[in-house]
Amino acid sequence: MAMCMSIQEVHDLLDNISTLIGGFLYDKAKESLEREREATKLSPVTSWNVLVNGLIQLSLAEKSYMSLMFLAHKSFLRKDSSARVCYEALSLEYQRVADGLTDSTLDLCLLRAYRQLLHFVRGRLTLLEFYEKLWLVGSGKMRGVSELTEQLENFASDQEANFDHPHLAALKAVVRYEVRTLLSMLRTQEQLETWQFLPALMSLNEAHTHLNKFSACVQSRETRRLLFRRASQEPELIQWLQRLRAALVATFSLYFREVLSAQSSGSEFKALCAKTAADHFARLQSFQRKMDAALVALAFDGTEEAVRGGLGYRHPEQRVPPAGQHPKPYPAVLCCSKSDVQAALWPEVVAALAEPKLELSSSRVSHAWLGPSAAQSAFFLAISDCLTLVVVFDGRRSEKDSYVTSFMLETAAALRCIKIYHSLRPGAK
Questions:
Q1: What is the pLDDT of residue 333?
Q2: Window from 89-103, 175-189, 259-273, 392-406 with minimum mean pLDDT
Q3: By the 8 A CB rule, do 227 and 253 touch?
Q4: Does residue 21 form part of some domain?
Q5: For residue range 282-318, what is the model confidence (pLDDT) as tens digits?
Q6: Over the stretch 37-63, which tens digit does the pLDDT of each residue have?
Q7: Same domain, 26 and 132
Q8: InterPro entries recorded for this chain (predicted)?
């Protein structure tokens, strides 16, 4: 390369490195940039040298980011290999150099590149914080994903509108696929928690589409051979997204078991459920039989006016009954019970759920006696604001039954994908 850099050379460098980093070929990108640095080490164009050195650091940061090592305990990392430290340093450097550029044609070209790369690394820092918040959801220090969904929607809009350099298209594509995949899955979780069949189904399909595009970036034989050495391995971030989607599919299969089972034979549907990440219904059914429980069920609170949950499809203009006037305020999402028990017990379950003194909690199992003679023991645990796990036993049973409460808490955690979020931190159990 000549000592006097041209705009075309800037564009060629950005195209090449963006394609390599966007294709997960971080080591190859680093090698290419190191050759470029050696060839131009005597160049008087300082901003060019900074660009090359910065892209080397960016390739290292991206490799760490995709391996999820940015969430590892600090003692597991050396400071200079931390993605966060690299992104923060790049943010400061890009801003410093951009502020010192002139209005020459080449500098204006470099200025746009620096500003776009600055936008990219600041976006990465935002996503680092976002994944940390998801980990907090998994560790029980933060509840729900609704607020996070809104934050990610705003971030996605900003990236689409402001990260638009034509020679960094491969980097933009990676961010788009990652963010759209995660956003679709968070929406799915929100819709599952309010028992919305069609919206959840559509969001799951969107997640599947975007995740396939994200995964396709590492599908080439060269990428797999150079980066992972094994044909079956993918970046940790993509593997984690695949696990989250699998968990959501398993929850979807449970919540909408009635409508889904009607679309295939019993044996076929059972076989399909057995292939999911977790066959929740089989687990609930096994618990009910093993413990001789009268009833194990999920109840849906349809008393909220904003809730549009239910089975099957709903026309967008179809009216929803006013609050408190739902024809069945607490329908059973699903139920495992002794024969003919549900019809007799459900009115008692509904009465207990409507009782203000029950004090439903998402972290503590509540207990109540059912019936006029308090002949049955009932345990309740809120899965979400609209869904409650219910276990009923004939006879009086201690409210401190550790096996029952542990089973219910584990079930709730699985349906909320708690372990998946907690696994974001390497080494987490």
A1: 93
A2: 259-273
A3: no
A4: yes
A5: 999 999 999 999 999 999 997 764 455 555 555 555 5
A6: 988 877 766 788 889 999 999 999 999
A7: yes
A8: C12orf66-like_central_sf, KICS_2
Residue 412 placed within a domain? yes
172 bridge partner residues: none
What is the C-alpha separation between 376 and 214, in angstroms, rounded?
Answer: 51
Residues 116 and 60 in one domain: yes
Question: Computed from CA positions of residues 194, 200, 203, 209, in that sequence, does the dihedral angle turn out positive or negative?
Answer: positive
User: What is the side-by-side strand order in the sheet with 376-382?
Assistant: 332-337, 295-300, 387-394, 376-382, 366-370
Amino acid at 130: F
How many structural domains are present in the chain?
2
Mean pLDDT of the chain: 87
Residues 289 and 402 in one domain: yes
**pLDDT tens readout for residues 194-247:** 999 999 999 999 999 999 999 998 755 455 555 555 545 789 999 999 999 999
77 pLDDT band, cuts 50/70/90, is very low
Dihedral of CA atoms 371, 373, 375, 378 in degrees, nearest 10, equals: 40
Do 181 and 302 belong together in one domain? no
Closest C-alpha among 385, 394, 390 to residue 407: 390
pLDDT at 142 (0 to 100): 77
387 DSSP β-pair partners: 300
> Could you tell me if 219 and 311 lie in one domain?
no
